[in-house]
Design a protein that fits this description.
The complex is a heterodimer of chains A (892) and B (111). Chain A is α+β, with helices and mostly antiparallel strands. The longest helix of chain A has 44 residues, at 748-791. At the A-B interface, helix 1, helix 2 and helix 4 of A face helix 2 and helix 3 of B.
């Protein structure tokens, strides 16, 4: 039938379907009307009453048959079948409420977790930030090529580039921002600010402030930098207790007072970064180290824009490319460096996943998050499969009757699919609740301060994802039942003997293997993440962490300010040492628990490029004593080494360095060549520390002696006694010297603790999910086993009658299941290891202790799963082997 | 019935559509009209009209409506839809072509 016909007849057919009774009444009336008229006609022809009636009926034909024939023209076979199947599914659900409820709960958890997390990922990664006309919104990424390394890189725009685009572009209305960390003094805690151009909210599509106003154009005038701030709703609520009279009040950020002029509503854009918005022209006042407006060649601004009416993205790209190539020419003519800059632009919709620099990582991350979650769904599906499989077996004689009466395979498959769809749809509908709740729950665990204001609306993408999940779950969970129904042995089934539809042991074995494998992966993830916070807290880095405070300083050490900086540092040093408890000061160029790019260290005579990558830490002479790192060989730097000629010629190496360069010889007195061709003599060897990654020994490391006249670097204070008073004293000292310089001194232990704390919440989320998975696996394994035990009950009965003891049967069942568990664990390992490798690669720059192969994780997960599934095995196996063989066999 | 049923059915549909194309009619009037135009050629019971009518309706070629007739009775009137009109034209053309072809064949004489 053509489409047009469908369009026309669809309502008709729906009407027949829904209003069948009414149509029947109509038909009866119509037929009666016909006969009545015929009788009248006959009467008019002169027949008598009875004769007229009989003649009319005769001429009409068989009333019953005709009615039936007419009726058939209404029926719409597929829909009616569908309706029957749905009714049937509903009835069988009602008949077995408990297993159905378990399956539905499993499914709604599986689907709900997936959709919920997807809602979150969708909001954070996939959606453009703006809600208002996303099609006219663009984010710009400059890709710079012509760097001497030959590699292209994505970066930000310089303020000059931004100004050029803003003044010359006709097609695009642009705004820019930079993130900048500051100290929120009221709470004495570091927060992130967005330094934005004053049209930022307008371009983002947020037109009205929740309270107060947004920035006025004059507040972004160059060199002025009005000291005003707009707060995000999340920040306002979590940090300022939603103070209703906040507008007009002053808050202090890193020593600068700013007046709050407005609140940006959370729900006006897809994802408003929490925090404080400041005019970007305040940047020089906050950044003590440099003035980015004065350095035209430093890229620092990210850019978004709105298409002006009548322009397309292609127009924008063409126009901006022209502007940027003009900027490139000017840049190269200024001859700032060897950088022969050529810029090409990438336009995106502003979503995080389209960010060209982050694209691959985001995809990897999403795969790592959604992958394990889909395993939970698969586990739920295997639960449902079991439900249907046992139901198919129970219904084998009914199915056999259907087949003998001519139901085709497709009809049979359709029936089972509808049943599965029915259950999955109920689960899916319930999961919508989770889709709304889960993102909030996760945000709550991850960051309680932001959660109450974060808005995550499931959109069509989320519901599309949900639909795909429901479809996939339907098909997956009905595959095996359909197979079982197709393979039905008709003769035995019709004779009414049980076991006619034997589910091959391969199927049940397969189900167990799959469930064990899937839950193994999830358990591994849980064990791995659950261990991390403990690992971080329990780490012994090989140096002091409790009695040493890091003082992060932000001081302009550029040549023009050098003299002032030297005075500042020297005064600070003496003031800190005067604080009670402070024992010594140390400087180092590397920060513990962060990774720095290695340098190339050579032996004398080696050509450049043939050396070994090594971490170089430029430390003051007091470093080793302050950090409690002891010499294992030779001696450490002493105060006498600190004259310029000596400092240029000595080094201390780590044991890993010694092993790498001189595996067989004594390293003392040997000479190494630095990247700048300095020749250094090895004075001593120290033990390896664990300072790059938690719990992992560092690679080769060389300590060079810091030039005492140098300023800057990371400052550490060794102290005795308790930490808090000292930290406060240091903060007050710094603030007393420069009121705009607010620092948060922390002991190494405190920052470790903070890191562990933030990971604990992540571990909690994963732990919850893995527990759900484990629960599903246990119920799954239990139902598979009790199903297969039930199937084999007769077999056990016969065996027992033939003389097998209960124990030997129990033992064979145990052996069989253990083999399946083992196979499952191996499959699970095959799934988990590649995921772990991917994870390891994604985290290669973080200090997290993620090994490529972790025996503890795999071992403990395997142990846990084996125990749990053996417990699940016990009950069904016990029941099967302890039934009376005579009772089982009586049905034979 | 002397003719194969599907042939009767096919021609019946065509006749019904053609008659309804001239004016909307209720079932009984339609059956009288059929008898009138086809004489005794179409030997079907009065009632077999109804399955045919309902099928045509489900296919969207005709539509029905309850309307009052003489002396306060009501009857279900059938009329042609736009789709039905198109279908009738097509089918009539088909019929034309086939019957011409068949009569041409039948007119052949042995030589």
């Amino acid at each position: 039938m053509r489409f047009e016909n469908w369009l026309y007849t669809l309502p008709l057919r729906l009407r027949t379907l829904i209003r069948g009774n009414r149509m029947n009444a109509d038909l009866n009336e119509e037929l009666r009307d016909h006969i009545d008229r015929q009788i009248e006609e006959n009467l008019a022809r002169g027949m008598d009453k009875e004769e007229a009636r009989l003649a009319a009926l005769r001429a009409f034909g068989n009333l019953v048959t005709l009615r039936e024939q007419t009726h058939e023209t209404w029926t719409w076979a597929p829909v009616e079948h569908l309706w029957q199947d749905i009714l049937y599914a509903f009835r069988s659900l009602r008949r077995a409420p408990l297993p159905s409820a378990v399956a539905i709960i499993a499914l709604s958890l599986g689907i709900g977790l997936n959709t919920g997390v997807f809602t979150l990922l969708n909001a954070i990664f996939l959606k453009p930030p703006t809600l208002k006309d996303p099609r006219s919104f663009v984010q710009l990424f400059p890709q710079y090529s012509g760097w001497f390394t030959g590699a292209d890189q994505y970066s930000s725009f310089t303020s000059e580039d931004f100004d050029a685009i803003r003044t010359h572009s006709h097609a695009l209305d642009v705004a820019a921002w930079q993130r900048f960390p500051v100290l929120f003094e009221q709470e004495n805690k570091p927060i992130s600010t967005m330094q934005v151009t004053c049209n930022y909210f307008h371009v983002l599509g947020v037109d009205r402030a929740r309270m107060g106003r947004f920035f006025a154009e004059t507040e972004c005038a160059h060199g002025v930098g009005a000291q005003v701030a707009v707060l995000s709703e999340a920040f306002w609520k979590s940090q300022l207790g939603a103070d209703p009279r906040i507008v007009g009040k002053t808050i202090h950020l890193s020593g600068m007072p700013v007046v709050v002029i407005g609140i940006a509503p959370s729900d006006a854009a897809n994802f408003i970064v929490g925090g404080v918005f400041l005019p970007y022209t305040l940047e020089p006042q906050f950044d003590h180290a440099r003035n980015l407006f004065a350095s035209p060649d430093t890229p620092w601004l990210s850019m978004i824009g709105r298409l002006r009416p009548g322009f397309t993205r292609a127009d924008v790209k063409a126009e901006l490319s022209t502007i940027m190539s003009r900027q490139d020419r000017a840049y190269v003519e200024r001859k700032i460096s060897a950088f022969n800059r050529r810029t090409s632009l990438v336009l995106t919709n502003g979503s995080f996943i389209e960010n060209p620099a982050a694209h691959t990582n985001v995809i990897g991350l999403m795969a790592l998050i959604l992958g394990p979650l889909s395993l939970i769904l698969l586990l739920a599906c295997s639960n449902v499969t079991m439900l249907f499989l046992s139901r198919t077996i129970a219904r084998s004689s009914e199915i056999a009757v259907r087949v003998t009466l001519g139901a085709g395979r497709s009809r049979l498959a359709g029936m089972l699919l509808i049943e599965s769809l029915f259950i999955v749809s109920i689960g899916g509908a319930l999961s919508v609740i989770l889709a709304y709740r889960v993102p909030l729950l996760i945000m709550n665990i991850a960051d309680p301060s932001e959660a109450n204001t974060a808005v995550f609306r499931p959109d069509w993408q989320v519901f599309g994802y949900l639909a795909v999940l429901v479809a996939a779950a339907t098909v997956i969970s009905s595959l095996m039942p359909i197979r079982a129904a197709w393979k039905l042995d008709l003769i035995t089934a019709l004779k009414g003997r049980e076991g006619a539809a034997t589910v091959r042991s391969r199927t049940t074995n397969g189900l167990i293997v799959v469930q064990i494998a899937l839950s193994f992966v999830l358990t591994c993830a849980a064990v791995m993440f659950g261990r991390i916070p403990g690992l971080i807290r329990g780490v012994n880095p090989g140096f002091e962490t409790h009695q040493i405070v890091a003082v992060p300083l932000d001081v302009d050490t550029s040549p023009s300010n050098r003299d002032k900086a030297i005075v500042f540092y020297r005064t600070l040093e003496s003031k800190i040492l005067a604080i009670p408890g402070a024992q010594s000061l140390a400087y180092a160029s590397l920060q513990p628990f962060s990774q720095a790019p290695p340098s190339e260290i050579r032996l004398p005579g080696q050509a450049k490029g043939s050396g070994q990558p090594t971490s170089v830490d430029d430390v003051s002479s007091s470093f080793f004593s302050a950090f409690d790192i002891r010499a294992s060989q030779g001696r450490l730097f002493s105060a006498t080494d600190v004259n310029v000629t000596r400092a240029d010629s000595v080094a201390v190496i780590s044991q890993a360095f010694a092993r790498q360069f001189w595996p067989d010889n004594d390293p003392l007195g040997k000479v190494v060549v630095m990247p700048d061709d300095r020749h250094l003599t090895v004075l001593g060897v120290v033990a390896d520390t664990r300072s790059e990654r938690f719990g992992a020994l560092d690679g080769p490391r060389i300590y060079t002696l810091r030039d005492p006249s140098e300023v800057g670097g990371n400052l550490y204070v060794r102290f005795a006694g308790s930490a808090k008073p000292l930290e406060n004293a240091i903060r007050d000292t710094v603030k007393g010297m420069d009121p705009t310089l607010i620092v948060t001194p922390e002991t190494m232990w405190e920052s470790l603790e903070a890191g562990a704390e933030s990971l604990t919440s992540l571990a909690k989320i994963i732990l919850i999910m893995a527990s759900i998975a484990l629960l599903m696996a246990v119920t799954g394994v239990y139902s598979v086993l009790s199903f297969s035990m039930n199937q084999r009950r007769r077999e056990f009965g016969i065996k027992m009658v033939l003389g097998a003891s209960r124990v030997s049967i129990f033992r064979s069942v145990l052996f069989h299941t253990t083999r399946n568990i083992g196979a499952g664990l191996i499959c699970g390992f095959a799934l988990a290891e590649p995921a772990l490798l991917l994870f390891n690669r994604l985290l290669s720059h973080s200090p997290l202790p993620i090994n490529r192969f972790d025996l503890t994780v795999f071992g403990s997960s395997a142990l846990l799963l084996t125990t749990v599934s053996l417990i699940a095995l016990y009950l069904p196996a016990y029941r099967a082997t302890h039934t009376d063989p005579m009772r089982v066999l009586r049905t034979e | 019935m002397s003719k194969p049923p599907d042939l009767v059915q096919g021609t019946l549909d065509l006749l019904v559509l053609k008659i309804l194309a001239l004016q909307p009619l209720h079932g009984w009037a339609l059956s009288q009209r059929l008898k009138q135009v086809s004489g005794d050629v179409l030997q079907v019971s009065d009632g077999s009209l109804y399955p045919a009518l309902h099928k045509l309706e489900q296919q969207g070629w005709i539509q029905s409506e309850w309307k009052p007739t003489e002396n306060n009775r009501r009857a279900k009137f059938y009329s042609l839809t736009r789709l039905g009109k198109q279908h009738l034209e097509q089918e009539a053309a088909n019929w034309e072509r086939i019957s011409t072809a068949i009569s041409d064949v039948l007119r052949l004489r042995e030589v």
